[in-house]
Amino acid sequence: MWLIKExxxxxxxxxxxxxxxxxxxxxxxxxxxxSSYIIENVSLxxxxxxxxxxxxxxxxxxxxxxxxxxxxxxxxxxxxxxxxKQEKDYKIIGCxxxxxxxxxxxxxSGHFLTETSNLYNDNQIVIGNNLKYYFNCYRVNELIxxxxxxxxVVGILENGSKNLYxxxxxxxxxxxxxxxxxxxxxxxxxxxKMFNERQINDLIGKDNYIFIDQRQTKDSLITxxxxxxxxxxxxxxxxxxxxxxxxxNNSLSTIHNRMKEIGIKKALGASSRDIYLQFILENIFxxxxxxxxxxxxxxxxxxxxxxxxxxxxTVDVFNNINYVALILVIGSVCxxxxxxxxxxxxxxxxxxxxxxx
Amino acid sequence: xxxxxxxxxxxxxxxxxxxxxxxxxLTLEESCFVAIVGxxxxxxxxxxxxxxxxDDIDYGHYYFNNKSVKKFSKEEKLNLIKSxxxxxxxxxxxxxxxxxxxxxxxxxxxxxxxxxxxxxxKLDILDILNKYPSQLSGGQKQRVAIARCLITNxxxxxxxxxxxxxxxxxxxxxxxxxxxxxxxxxxxVIVTHDEDIASRxxxxxxxxNGRVVN
Lengths: 357, 214
Prior knowledge:
The complex is a heterodimer of chains A (357) and B (214).
Chain A: H1 2-9, H2 11-49, E1 53-58, H3 66-74, H4 76-79, H5 99-103, E2 111-112, E3 124-127, H6 129-134, E4 143-146, E5 149-156, E6 172-175, E7 187-191, H7 197-204, E8 209-213, H8 214-257, H9 259-267, H10 272-308, H11 317-334, H12 336-344, H13 347-352
Parallel strand pairs in A: 3-5
Antiparallel strand pairs in A: 1-7, 1-8, 2-5, 3-6, 4-5
Helix pairs in contact in A: 1-10, 2-8, 2-10, 2-11, 8-11, 8-12, 10-11, 10-12
Chain B: E1 2-13, E2 16-28, E3 33-37, H1 44-52, E4 59-64, E5 67-68, H2 74-83, E6 84-87, H3 99-108, H4 116-122, H5 138-150, E7 156-160, H6 168-183, E8 187-192, H7 195-198, E9 203-208, E10 211-212
Parallel strand pairs in B: 3-8, 3-9, 6-7, 7-8
Antiparallel strand pairs in B: 1-2, 1-4, 4-5, 9-10
Helix pairs in contact in B: 3-5, 5-6
């Protein structure tokens, strides 16, 4: 009760302390909460996307010769149903990002589905000119059967001099069931169960792609975010330390102003320890007030963020309690020096400073 | 009870030693009622600070209850301060505490405590216990300061110009209180430059240039 009354009386001197502490504590807690939220959500997004997805990014610029590279490696002749060389199963070497990219091949007389009518979820196939006779398929959208698997024909490469790709009349581009996702141009998603890196290496060529594993991508992104988080937390801690130094400075000037009080108490029998404890307890109490106000401010800010940003940031009490405890420790440690200074003031000093008469 | 033996207290002023107390010999018996009189700067406040245990001496001996204060441990020195009550000219009450809290402040640091109401009644401050110092007159403030000494059962009260900030009427009231307390066995030492106040004490000690002259 004494303590509260004394603190309340000195409140004007404590405003600066509380303000400085509050700003740094709010900063620290917000950094912790927001960064935790970001990391958690990035992680969750990857989980939802599917961690089994791997990604092959082609390094070559996808110009017209892109198809050359692919078909060369694929050795379509070998597996072409037209040549009846069907000893091996069909394998998927990749799929295009919808028909938009096939259009870039600039077939002058080919038949293609429009981009909007493309059905990603179906098994889709682009067949060469000769294969259309083999499959007896002259229109897009028809179904053909390759080794017991049904494919929807989404494009037919026409033969003839006008066709820039007549050399590849027999090629097959399969939008396979194993393809798990599509992204922007340049990315080919394949199920990692179907392909390992060595196989893709054999198919596409060692220097032509980067194999990106979704799990690795997630891990490296989380590591990066954690690094950013640590840096931000470190900066926030620096601000806590800086504000603590301000608090020390303020406390020291407060001590000078409170010489009379210290002198009276010592004259009434207070020991240096009593004065020391009083200042320490006072500062802990002030820090507790600052922490309480900061927590309240943080909760309000989070609530506002949730409302206006339409996201759901939650406050994990246990995750933040360590930081709060740490702030309290920093605050208490920083106040040891002013408390010690206050306790060392002698009655005669206060008399000589004309605080007493 | 209190004995000073050739006590010297020096202060440095412009690199020169100034003798505030110049080989002072003094004895204060139990239940004494003494006035220390002298002009400003004669060393009477320094003497009071030494007796109260606030200041150390440079030479000589200060015996409290026949024990040299020089040999006191930190705790014994604190006990010396606790056992002597000091009343100041400017009262030295804490503004943010009520009269009651100001009086009880002393008992925060000491185990023994008298009944607050009895003490307040004795000093006629019963009706102002819940007021703040800013709401009191000078005389009331000084009575509160005296009550603060009495609440912890002090046997010696040193008063440094206790009537310096008071009018004649209030000064007389305070002196009456001191007289009553002395009659109850409490030793009173008053530092003053007011001969009229001094004349109300049983014994007058005159100081000049840091020396006792009578």
